[in-house]
Input
Amino acid sequence: MAFKRSRNLKILLDKKELTFAGNANLKIYGILNCSSGKRMKPENRIFFSSETEAIEMGYRPCGRCLVFAYKNWLQLKKC
Output
């Protein structure tokens, strides 16, 4: 389940149960400490417990922090 800002979000982040964050407008996800993700507006942030969850929700990998996954996504998109 994707999460937005809340007290429960802080608890899950502290427990390291959420490992990916995304931009709800651009449909891009990446790791929590990605420099690109840190620059996005807080209201656009969404959090995921797994990479699979982000992909299932229609998000694509970040080209900066998930380079290998992004390149694979590009290849699949071309097919």
Notes: Residues 36 and 64 are 7 Å apart (CA to CA). The chain has a mean pLDDT of 89.
